Amino acid sequence: MAKRGSADKDSVNVSREIRELVEGNNAIRGPEVISLLKEKYPNYQFNENSVQVAYANARRKLGISRTVAKRPIGRGPIGRSQRPATVTAAPVGTSAPSGEVTITMLVAARDLLRAAGGDAALAQQALKNLASLLN
To answer: Fewer beta carbons under 10 A from the terminal one: N or C of the chain?
Structure first.
């Protein structure tokens, strides 16, 4: 249903006035908009909160500012989760239980990859050859 036109001829269409001000000057700030409206219509009393909302809406519709959607309640922060790492550090020289990766193992794997020139297939082949020698 369409909005009804104002019955009072002295009333001001605040959103239209603000939209025209923002289209004319993209760098205009909210308090400046309020002061310009008060200068243009000295007998009209503006609700400053409504003017700020209409100003923000006009900037968003013109694509001057973007809005960020709020996260639903109960959702965690955006980005990486704060879960603890699955890698555990074991003292150097001790063996970890089977299936557990230690920092020492990761450092050795990194060194192996560097020695293989970053080629993971070559590093795997070297590990298979080493395993066959040990068995």
So the answer is: N
